[in-house]
Amino acid sequence: MAEERVISPYFEKYQRLKEDPEAENLNKKNEALKVVTCSQLVYSQLVCQKTYYELASKLAFQVVGHLKKEEKRKKKKIAKKVSPYFEKSQEEEDVDSVVVGLGKEKKKKSILLSAAEKRSVAYERKCCDNTWKPPRSDFGLLQEDHVDDPWRVLVICMLLNRTTGIQAKQVISDLFNLCPNAKVASEVSSGEIEKIIQPLGLFRKRAVMIKRFSQEYLEESWTHVTQLHGIGKYAADAYAIFCTGKWDLVRPADHMLNYYWDFLSTITHTLN
């Protein structure tokens, strides 16, 4: 049996080149083409990836820039200046930004009455033949202790402006000892009132308001409580509830007055 002759791959390749010289060149061209094609593919992927990252980076910068502009716009809007005239009139409008009675201070947006609402029947001046006497509740509103004097009810509403019932209760007795009625309040000096109500803050403004209100209260010309200095919706509603008995014609915005209003609604059949 003849042995099979083993030929070295080198000589095998050499033999093929002798038989077909063009085949090797074609193989080389094919290999080179594969390398070029692969390089182009890798390059294309790298270009696409670079383009993606550039677009993503550009978009991120745009988003951050937009957020910064929005934040600056909001800060500018918050820091908007208000004319001293409007700022003063807003503060004087009353008492609607407070919690009445015993509880925590809770600032609320003031609700202003329109010109027509200020002339409502609910806010008309109390007549001499009005015998309304509001019943006692379990809520212990400060106004309930002074329903016999509408002036005191309204002054209490002024004291409750931007403070709590607990704080106001601490100065009410001393204030009404100094100023038992509107006439005396209009005659005493603002400094004396300031000393008593100083713990409440804004004591100078409050003292001036109480004196001016008391002077106007003594006049006979006013027909609606809303015409008096410093009287807004909260004080006017309290006047209708505790002084004139027209509680069913108003709907308070203050939560403590609402408690008392609901209380009256549940016992309306027993009221005169």
From TrEMBL:
The keyword Cytoplasm does not apply. It is found in: Nucleus. One of its GO terms (cellular component) is nucleus. The keyword Nucleus applies. Keywords: Nucleus. Its main location: nucleus. GO terms for biological process: DNA repair. This is HhH-GPD domain-containing protein. GO terms for molecular function: catalytic activity; DNA binding.
